[in-house]
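So, read this over?
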Amino acid sequence: MMKNILEIKNLTAAYSGNRQKIDYILKNLSLNMIENEFLGLVGESGSGKSTLANLIAGFIDPLEGEIFFRGKALQNLTLKQRITETEAGIQMVFQDPYDSLNPIQTIEKQLEEPLIIQNKLNAAQRKIKVSEMLHNIGLSEEYANRYPKQLSGGQLQRVAIGCALIIEPALLLADEPVSSLDVSVQAQILDLFQELRQKIGFACLFISHDLSVVQFLCDRIAVLNQGEIVEIGETEEVFKNPQNDYTKQLIEDTSYLIF
């Protein structure tokens, strides 16, 4: 039986407010993920998708609620403490790869940096690991000495994914990782996620504005509306038999974009 890797209980978050009025982003949200599961998260702009990812990563703090990773409570820890407590087991891939990478470092150095921070491998072992990851993300050895400006958007996102996965985290938070890419490149990156899932093994909270992406990639889908999960279930079941009117609208209106 697969174990829960992530448990979220009654999570509430707000960016601003006062005693008279609080503008809530998430309200009493509860969610769980099991090991190696891909869970798709969809909803309108402002529904709280990225906020949820940032809460799990520790970039912002909740007003109320609890976050457990492998049974350990995270909500009262600093970002540094979270990294230590989880052994860097939660990593994140962002929408824009141009903002994710250091423009003055080679690709090799950027892939190696997480390994240096983790401090478990010597220089020779790190070099082997970087070489393996270049192969896993579909880039040849010659890319090791290149700089971000010498790569395409799709290649940069491959590197960003490689940087997140090189220390083999148990949970990857992917916040719109293909939305800034051309359609043909999107398909390649989605195939890469599938391949890396098989090779490395990790769970993924996959945020996407494209329902077809979630349908292709994810085991389950959670629909977020105004800070609350209104429907969650097996992906194909939700698409075939949606229960919530909001979910039905998202599926029926194929021209609808959910950012």
